[in-house]
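Researcher: Here's my situation. A collaborator sent me these components and asked whether they could plausibly form a single complex. I don't have experimental data yet, so a predicted model of the whole assembly would be a useful starting point for our discussion.
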Amino acid sequence: DGGITQSPKYLFRKEGQNVTLSCEQNLNHDAMYWYRQDPGQGLRLIYYSQIVNDFQKGDIAEGYSVSREKKESFPLTVTSAQKNPTAFYLCASGQGGAYGYTFGSGTRLTVV
Amino acid sequence: GQQLNQSPQSMFIQEGEDVSMNCTSSSIFNTWLWYKQDPGEGPVLLIALYKAGELTSNGRLTAQFGITRKDSFLNISASIPSDVGIYFCAGQKTSGSRLTFGEGTQLTVNP
């Protein structure tokens, strides 16, 4: 079955360490997105990529980095520069047109 | 970035009650989408609307695309405990453009 996979589901890191969240899709979608969700809040766009080897900053890109070397993969690195990294991170992909996005099941990152 | 105005922010209802929520914008959108997010999971698409005035149902869910193209409504009839979650609206201005999301409606259903 086609889908979008985020791993791991739960991640714990010490303050000051970089951490990379994985996102893989086998839907053949061109576009991929990373969102951050804090308790009781909506979805805030971190980075997005509409094509391989290209990506753009979203609304809250500071302290994050991404790469898009393959169509299927869009990893997100939360760097030590991100002041408040503890959050629920969602990856999504889209095929263009008017079909919306398919979301992964999320990674809950806790920094202690 | 721009957000859609989604209301209410939260709802606490009894099982069996009907629910209504809506999303408004100052801009026109050509596609409206409604997602549901179960606790600890990613959002899942419930209904997509493509035409002003369109009314679309999916089981107990009914959504409408406002005739001004600046709003959309979602109704849930005869709520059940598994309806619990966060409901998001999303608008798309043109085909292929990025989605703009509402801030979500947190629904709690008491058995």
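Model: Some features of this prediction you could bring to your collaborator: The two ends of chain A are 36 Å apart (CA to CA). The first strand of chain A starts at residue 4 and ends at 7.
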